[in-house]
Amino acid sequence: MIHGFDVYRMYLALKLHFTNPKYDYFQYEGKTSAKEKTYQQRNDFWFFETLAKKHTKEEIQNYLLASFVYSEDPKALWIGDIKRNGSDRYVVRQKQMERLSYSFMSDCNTVDDYLEREGDEFNSLFETKHSSYNGPPPLLKLYVKKQITLETLLIFDIILGFTKQWDRHLVDPLWESISMKIKKYKPFLSINKNKYQQILREKFCE
C-alpha cells in the first residue's frame, strides 16, 4: 500500500529528474530529502493523500509522469497545474502507449511526405546544417510544429542516436529543453527496438 507521503516524494523525485541534469530517478530509486513533517503542513496535503487512496503506485507514477512529459516547461510545473490538467495528460499518454506502434507508423508517413515534398534524402532529417533548410534539423522542426509526437522523436533517437550530434552543434535554448526531456523520458519508454527498426527499414530503406 502506498501512502500520501510516498506520492509526495514521488512527485518531488520526478520533478528533480526532469529538471536537474544530475538527478536520476532510477539511480536514486526516487529518493529525496523530503521530510514528512513538512509534507503534513502543505496546503495540498490532501491531493497526495487522495491519490494514494484511489490508485496503485504504478498508476500514480504514470499519472505524474504524463504531466512532466507533456508540460511545455517541467520546471514551471506545479501541483495546481497537475490538479487541472493531470487527468487529461494521463489519458493522452495512456492512449499513446496503447497505440504507440500505429502512431509511430503514422508519423513515419508524415516524415516520408515531408521528404518527398522537399526532394530530400532520409539522412537530411538529422543534418544540423542543411542546404535547403535554414534552421534546426528537419526532424526537429516536425516535432516542434507538432507534426510528429515526442515518442516518435525519442524512438528515432533510440534507434539512430542522433541527439548527441545535435547537442554538439545546436546552440538553441529550445533544443536544450527538448534534449533534456528526451534524455529524461527515455528510461520510462520501454519498446521493442527490433520492431521499430523494422518499421523504419520498411518505410525508408526499401
Keywords:
single chain; 65% helix; 206 residues
Overview of the structural elements:
This protein has 206 residues and is mainly alpha-helical. It contains eleven helices and no strands. Helix 1 (4-19) packs parallel to helix 4 and helix 4 packs across helix 5 (79-98). The model has no long low-confidence stretch (mean pLDDT 95).
Distance between the termini: 51 Å
Any low-confidence stretches, pLDDT <50, length ≥5?
Answer: none
Mean pLDDT: 95
For the biggest sheet, the summary is: none
Structural classification? mainly alpha
Q: What is the strand content? A: under 5%
Number of alpha- plus pi-helical segments? 11
CA-based gyration radius:
19 Å
Topology:
Elements: H1 4-19, H2 36-40, H3 45-54, H4 57-70, H5 79-98, H6 100-118, H7 138-144, H8 150-160, H9 163-169, H10 173-185, H11 193-204
Helix pairs in contact: 1-3, 1-4, 4-5, 6-11
Could you give a quick summary of the protein structure above?
The chain has 206 residues and is mostly helical. It is built from eleven helices and no strands. The mean pLDDT is 95.
